[in-house]
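Subject: two folds for Thursday's group meeting

Dear M.,

Sorry for the delay on this. The cluster queue was jammed most of the week, so I only got both jobs back this morning. I'm pasting them in the order they finished. Each block is the input sequence followed by the predicted structure tokens. Could you check whether the formatting survives your parser before we put anything on slides? The first protein is the one we discussed after the seminar.
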Amino acid sequence: MRNSAQTPLAATRLNAWMRNRSWAIAMTVAIVITVGGLVILETARERIAAEYESALEARDVTVQLSRLESQLAQLSAYQSSFLLTKQTANVQAYCSTAGRVRQTAQQLSVYYHRREAGSAELASFTQIASLIDARIGAGAAALQQAEPQPLALSGCGTATGAAPVDAGLVDNTLSLLRDNEASRAQHALDASRADQRVSTLVAAGLSALNIVLFILLFRNLGIQIDRQARVQRQLITQQEELDQLVTERTRQLEALGWHLQAVSENEKTQLARELHDELGAILTASKMDVAWANRKLKDSEPAISEKLTRALANLDQGIALKRRIIEDMRPTVLTNFGLVTALRTLADESAQRNNWVLDLNLPKDDIQLDEQTEIALFRVAQESFTNAAKYARASRVSIGLQIADGQVALSIADNGVGITPADLKRTHTHGLLGMRQRVAAHGGHFDIRRGVPNGTDIHVVMPCVSTTASALDAPSASM
């Protein structure tokens, strides 16, 4: 069972491997075939060149054999003419012709010795060469016998008194050798033509193979391009879907963050109101009762009066703590006197606690903004002063508020150690994230950067619903 299950899996893997490697296999086979075809073409070219050269050589030997036969005929003609006319010019012509005959015979001898030493053709030509020499010598002897005076036969070689050579045997042998060379030349030409046809067929096959390969290559490239285009379109579609999803999730998270901030502010407001109304009333009533008891027992019970005095001090601390907690949750100065006064008060208190030199660039008159914008700007300033106190180790802090073109800008800077780029990229710095989220939820822009040369600069720009200025001279004078 296991082997039977593994067999289809192995076949599937083999088919997948073949599909993935099919182009490489086809290219390898095509390269091998092309190289083999080129080898065949080169071999055929060399054979054609050798066969053509052999055909030319055989034709040249045929011409030389014909020339030798013609020269022998001229030699006989000059001999006969001298015997008839007794003119010495024929003797000179005979000797010069004999020299040409020997030269031609020498060239042919070199050819036959170089081509096929020991063959039948070489033996036949060797025999013919000796007969030709004997023929020239016998002719020279016949010329000298026909003339009583000595003749100038030095150019004819040694005259011999041998019997005349059979001219028919020489001519027949030369004709046979000439026919053999003509046949060899024709055979070489036929082989050359055959090799040319093979070369043509191989070249045509290679051309057809290359054409098919180019067609397959372009087809495969087209398929790859189409596949890449489809993949790219899919990636673009997926990227667009992811972008839409991220945008939607971002909007949801912004809405959720705004909702959580609104809920937190509402809960802080409700808790501050309950602390002010309930706990404040309880602490105030308790302080009044303890003060009354302290006055009654001050003279009669000094020890109890001392305890009550200490209890009054604890109640004062509790009332102060309650007031501070309420101010942190829902600053009453922001509700009662507006944003400018609240920022001035917050800056003065922070400077007193941290021994800062304070630079204020706030409007003299208060500005009327919507409640959520005022709360957002106040919280940003509150968080910025807290961070400056904890981390900056600053000695000078500046705060500015400007309003123009339907926008309100808050700027806070210190001369501390300055925020680092790594701190800007951290995801667990909830203070910075909270400020960014709070500002972004109201459609504003939050920017924090390292100051020059040191320190930290915070710049917030938010749209404002109303820019109506209200003269609040009384609160400013009270501050």
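Second protein, same layout:
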Amino acid sequence: MSGVLDTQALLRLMAWLSPAFPIGGFAWSGGLERAVHDDLVETAGDLSDWLATLLTHGSLWNDAVLFCEASRQFESGAGLKEVAELGLALAGSAERHAETLALGRAFVTAASAWPAEVFDLLPADVPFPVAVGAVAAAHGVPVENALAAYLHAAVSQSVSAAIRLGVCGQSEGVAVLARLETQIGEPAEHAADSTLDDLGSAVVQADIASLRHERQNSRLFRS
């Protein structure tokens, strides 16, 4: 059950997970660019299926579990260090490692405009979901609300990348977001009660696409 999301918490979530927040999320596609190149994602329907699978069985599910663990550990430097190291170890390719690390570092730098003790506890090398989960918890944002916003932002970024890659237009992209509301809400609810034992991925094609992107010559994105 989610807690009460007050106006201040809502405003902070809107700021932290806005496309305008200075973390450089627009530069990454999480392997989607290679999936488009390899004709694995050709239409808005393909994109919806791709993202739904990541939410339930792939990297976004693991992000959700890590996010919630970081939320629980936000007052423990040792706990945050452990979950951060695990999050980085779970990155399936060099680019995915670089992506989550770059976004995590940039988020910590930008979010420090809202002072909190958690910034002294977070390790220097922190993956993105761990950074957001810990900071949101430190500011009293209910974990289910914070995670739903995080996952929605991640899906929105992928849709934006797909539009730039020519997979779909803006209207189709908005329809994908509408179609995925349930797939975003359910992982957010389930992950709130998860433990690290629930980590796991079964998206072999997505992992291979991320690995193959490292050798792609012509590209718009860094991953």
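Two things I noticed about the second structure. The chain has a mean pLDDT of 95. The chain has one domain: 7-16+30-210.

Cheers,
T.
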